[in-house]
Design goal:
The protein has 509 residues and is of the alpha/beta class. The chain is built from 15 helices and 21 strands. The chain has a seven-stranded mixed beta sheet. A hairpin with a 3-residue loop joins strand 1 and strand 2 (19-26). The longest helix is centred in the C-terminal third of the chain and has 27 residues, at 386-412. It starts with 8 loop residues before the first strand and ends in a 6-residue tail after the last helix. The structure holds adenosine-5'-diphosphate (ADP). Adenosine-5'-diphosphate binds next to helix 10 and helix 11.
Length: 509
């Protein structure tokens, strides 16, 4: 009958570090109707450099969309039932392109890339009073100086790629993180925008005013003309013009992937936290409209902003290498042929045999922020087998999570009783159990682990006026409770700390 409301769907483009996805949601029921995923190649032109091809990303986005539209047809769903689209993305990754041709002027420099270590060294010299204080800009942008964030990547591109320097001087160069690049192209070059959550990862936005900050721009010598407009995370920015199959649909949500996951997990209240385990691992702790300054190595970030409502902030702890360590064990150590074997292989031994693996391949992020740390595997004996090392790689993710949780408790003064988790690695039940054991708190995994994309879809739905956030139904959950005693937990953590000590300052200078 006519009085039954026709279902409507919301699309989410989720451009992660290892792959691009397009998903169609029934947001209210938290249900993925269909999706398509394409892997994205990482290029390593030099040691410590990580790049991706912006055109490959874009082609993958379009292909995912086209494939999803075909799959919808098979389900007898018309593309006109998609009422809004949101974008979520790997953060900090930097693209610069020419606004006349729309062509990228260089490959994207991926967040993991370490090439700006020397740029950072030079920049530290310009900190007043020769203190070389990494936290000098933290009061303005919430972040410590690190090659991780976009500002140094932009600086490097302007200084080292003549084409980019010329384009900046000629006033034809545009910068964007991945969200900006995708929305620019979906809108057929009409929108050059980003949202507050992505902008808060550039080191160029003032964390209070939510505007590009003249002091930061001057410090990094970056002209404002290349920067996108900063919008909220949830409003109608414009409409899709390409690909054709989605033409006319509003683009009404935009959010960095980790902040998207916080929303997708419905961590809407201060004190709620989630951890997303993918290439890296990221913990976000909602602090509401209060901007909390960390004194324990965490960073302050904008979580999201619904239209004209005040911004919601979060404390964040990021781990550079989580799932990526398993890729390394597979590709470089040939310890497995497929990452899906991880759990089965790690379960061939009953513990890690006192082996500790700190996968600090590109330094350590929170709470250590040591860019000259390097990986170590210690505690090896003649009995050590590859299974112990695989298990130690899983435990490393758990210990790094504990490092960050401890910092969050110190900064916020409240202890978490539950950690909500999501991301590609959480399919691994052993990892989930180890996480509960090694932190001593309950680990709770929703049935539907695509929290990041769901977050973008929620923002798009609210932004287009289709739903209220309270309409989204809570998820069913699987709970993992701690099963080892406190003493064992703390003993193991002390050993981890010893291993971390050994990984630090791996540099003669
Ligand atoms: P991203 O968003 O960073 O691209 P995903 O959330 O898609 O990452 O997760 C991919 C990561 O999950 C990879 O680094 C991979 O090593 C890890 N992973 C995939 N399957 C498993 C598994 N069964 N056990 C442990 N880790 C896994």
């Amino acid at each position: 009958p006519d009085n039954i409301k026709k279902p409507f769907y919301i699309g989410a483009i989720d451009e992660g570090t290892s792959s691009t996805r397009f998903l169609i949601f029934d947001v209210i029921k938290r249900k993925v109707i269909t999706s398509h995923q394409i892997e994205i190649k990482q290029k390593y032109p030099q040691e410590g450099w990580v790049e991706q091809d912006p055109m490959e990303i874009l082609t993958a986005v379009y292909e995912c969309i086209n494939k999803v539209i075909e799959k919808l047809k098979e389900l007898n769903i018309d593309s006109s039932d998609i009422k809004a689209v949101g974008v979520t993305n790997q953060r900090e990754t930097t693209i610069m392109w020419d606004k006349k041709t729309g062509e990228p002027l260089h490959n994207a420099i991926v967040w993991l890339d370490m090439r700006t270590t020397t740029t950072m060294d030079e920049v530290l010299d310009s900190v007043p009073n020769k203190t070389r204080n990494k936290n000098y800009l933290k009061p303005l942008c919430g972040l410590p100086l690190s090659p991780y964030f976009s500002a140094l990547k932009i600086r490097w591109l302007i200084d080292n790629v003549p084409k980019i320097k010329q384009s900046v001087d000629a006033g034809t160069c545009l910068f964007g993180t991945i969200d900006t690049w995708i929305i620019y192209n979906l809108s057929n070059k009409k929108l050059h925008i980003t949202d507050v959550s992505n902008a808060s990862r550039t080191m160029l936005m003032n964390i209070e005013t939510l505007k590009w900050d003249p002091v930061l721009l001057k410090f990094f010598k970056i002209p404002q003309t290349i920067l996108p407009d900063i919008k909220s995370s949830s409003e109608v920015y414009g409409h899709i013009e390409q690909p054709n199959c989605l033409a006319g649909i509003p683009i009404s949500g935009c959010v960095g992937d980790q902040q998207g996951a916080l929303l997708g997990q419905l961590c809407l209240k201060p004190g709620q936290a989630k951890a997303t385990y993918g290439t890296g691992c990221f913990l976000l702790y909602n602090t509401g409209s209060n901007k909390v300054d960390s004194t324990h190595g965490l960073i302050t970030t904008v979580a999201y902003k619904f239209g004209k409502n005040p911004a919601v902030y979060a404390l964040e702890g990021s781990v550079a290498v989580a799932g990526a360590a398993l890729g390394w064990l597979r590709d470089n150590m040939q310890m497995m042929s497929n990452i899906s074997q991880t759990q089965e292989l790690a379960e061939r031994v009953k513990n890690s045999g006192d082996v500790y693996f700190v996968p600090a391949f590109s330094g350590l992020y929170a709470p250590y922020w040591q860019q000259d740390a390097r990986g170590v595997i210690c505690g090896i004996t003649e009995d050590t087998q590859q299974y112990h090392i695989i298990r130690a790689a899983l435990e490393a993710v758990c210990f790094q999570t504990r490092d960050i949780l401890d910092a969050m408790v110190k900064d916020s003064g409240t202890k978490l009783s539950t950690l909500l988790v999501d991301g590609g690695m959480t399919i691994n039940d052993l990892l989930m159990q180890l996480q509960a054991d090694l932190t001593g708190i309950n680990v709770v995994r929703p049935y539907m682990v695509e929290s990041t994309a769901l977050g973008a879809a929620i923002l798009a739905g609210v932004g287009a006026g289709l739903i209220d956030i309270s309409d989204v139904e809570p998820s069913q959950m699987t709970k993992f409770s701690p099963q080892i005693n406190e003493d064992e937990k703390d003993l193991r953590y002390s050993k981890w700390k010893m291993a971390v000590e050994r990984s630090m300052k791996w540099d003669l200078s």
